[in-house]
Specification:
tt1808, chain A, 4 helices, 14 strands, 23% helix
């Protein structure tokens, strides 16, 4: 989703969360500033849904997959984001007991749009890396069968892989499952 504006006023995390409860439009929070987010396209929403469904089916009883309504908190950045898909395995750690903010994602997904792809690949990814439990990141193209994947290694460095083509399969190392690209892009016209 595209960032459309940000506030000049500085807000506390609680002020942001209170605002989000009644806001007509979702926003992300970065160190006191609130950034309005534009809505996603039908393609964007379908890909996010497909991935959430696939992860839920393949990891039933082990992990929980959430669509973009779930916020992720990055404590060391004083930030709250809305990834397109969030995967939490094992016990969930909620921010101050709130059921709408997790602090321990294993895998995060962003479906790329022209207006946010550089932000998702750079600033947002660097912020996500400060979450200790975060080990895998997917950047999903909307207009071709292509997923860029980042996998945290034992030494803290990140391995980059690309899965390209309709007949390819995406292997998710963090949860040891394979997902067919055709299923990721089901009902999407490419």
């Amino acid at each position: 989703m595209a960032q459309i504006s940000h506030t000049q006023k500085r807000y506390t995390p609680q002020e942001f969360l209170d605002r989000e409860e009644t806001a007509e439009q979702r926003s992300e929070y970065i160190d006191g500033h609130i950034y309005g987010m534009a809505g996603g396209t039908a393609t964007h929403i379908q890909i996010s849904f497909n991935l959430t469904k696939l992860l839920t089916e393949k990891l039933r009883g082990k992990c929980r997959a959430y669509q973009s309504e779930m916020k992720v908190r990055v404590e060391r950045e004083n930030a709250f984001y809305y990834p397109d898909v969030t995967l939490v395995c094992g016990e969930q750690k909620f921010y101050r007991g709130r059921q709408d903010v997790v602090e321990n994602p294993l895998l995060l997904v962003e479906v790329l749009s022209d207006s946010t792809k550089e932000y998702d690949k750079n600033d947002k990814f660097f912020s996500y890396q400060k979450i200790d439990t975060f080990t895998e990141y997917l950047l999903v193209s909307q207009d071709k069968y292509a997923i860029q994947q980042y996998i945290r290694q034992a030494d803290g460095n990140w391995k980059i892989k690309a899965t390209i083509g309709a007949d390819s399969e995406l292997y998710l190392e963090s949860v040891d499952i394979t997902v067919p690209m055709r299923e990721v892009y089901d009902l999407v016209e490419i």
